[in-house]
Amino acid sequence: MVYERKKKKLYYVNSTYYRYHHEFCRKELEPDIDLAYFNISNYSNDPKRKYILANINYFKSLNIYALEISPVDLMPIDDIVFLWEKVSESSYIQEELHILLNSSRLQSLKSKLKSRIPLLEPVDIYRNLDYQAIGKYKSCGILNKLSRKYDFKVPECAFVIPFHYYHQHVISSSTSSLIDSLLSVKNTIPKDSLQLLLTEIRTRIKRAPIDTILMKEVNSKVSTDCVYSRFRFRSSTNAEDAKGFSGAGLYTSKTGVRNSEKKSFEKVIKKIWASLWTYEAFSERAYYHIDHKDVYMGIPVHRSFPNEEVNGVAITKNIYIKQVRLYND
Q1: Which of 1, 184, 186, 259 is the most buried (most CB within 10 A)?
Q2: Whole-number Å distance between alpha carbons of 203 and 205
Q3: Is residue 328 part of a domain?
Q4: Is the pLDDT of residue 135 over 50?
């Protein structure tokens, strides 16, 4: 949703048609607005910024609607309360609407917000989930659910770090500005200069501090009912396994070890995120005309199998024969 200050108008945006606030504003409100300027201006703590931006999410397990602000948004408290009031009075949700405390900054404002508006914390959401299916790894969530009913096993301590945290890290570390600079000259820059810019992007991703809420959730996942100390963190982008482009071997997977400084979870997560910007991966995407700005990195995690003798991929149908199924669900 977008609130336009000057016109005092609240827009409910269909995310099927507009994935991002900037897309909607550029198409419907301000045709010439630049993306970089839009982000700097409208995710700042400026009380006079042109737009107030947020999303509404429905959490089925809790039967709760929540107003969600971008984790990188520095929206002042008064604007948060103002937006909540506008949405509450203009929608059927009314005062049942909550504010999701989805960043360390919002968590720090909890004492100031709780007397003014209803709050929802991530722990309340996770506590009520049986399983979480994200992206192409939704099949793992389905298998996990089926394994409770039928007699078969799935990898223990499995969960997924979604694209959101990669995107948040790129913005908070200012890596996004480096990426924009690279993409503006990608067709004219010499190979040596391109490699140097890609190295700088990877270095910034790996050196920037990671989101504390993410690490708290990761540590919670591997500590709850999980007796293993080694975990495999696997790369998984939205630019793989596509028709005519497998993307196999382009990105890095790593093993993290609990309480290890050398192979800490934080280090391996950032190394996997950074592998999105190797010269090989960048060149391969460019060859297949894949838009680098639309590529994100997720990370499926499960306990490590250091002594495995073989691994492979299970295919549930013949992918070369149309309309022939080998697995009947």
Answers
A1: 1
A2: 5
A3: no
A4: no
Residues 87 and 208 in one domain: no
* H-assigned helices in 35-186: 35-42, 77-90, 104-108, 110-113, 122-127, 138-149, 163-172, 175-185
CATH, residue 179: 3.30.1490.20
User: With 0-12 CB in 10 A as exposed, 13-18 as middle and 19+ as buried, what is 253?
Assistant: middle
Q: Which two tokens stand for residue 239?
A: 């630019």
pLDDT at 11: 96
Domain end, chosen from 127, 149, 164, is at: 127
Domain range holding 265? 135-303
DSSP-derived pairing of the beta strands 64-68 and 55-59 = antiparallel
DSSP 108-151: HTHHHHTTTS-EE-HHHHHHT-S----GGGHHHHHHHHHHHHSS
User: Regarding predicted confidence, which is higher, 28 or 137?
Assistant: 28
Instruction: Give how far Cα 35 sits from Cα of 39, 42, 54, 142, Å.
Output: 6, 10, 17, 38
pTM of the model: 0.55
Domain count, the chain: 2
Identify the domain boundary among 127, 157, 189. 127
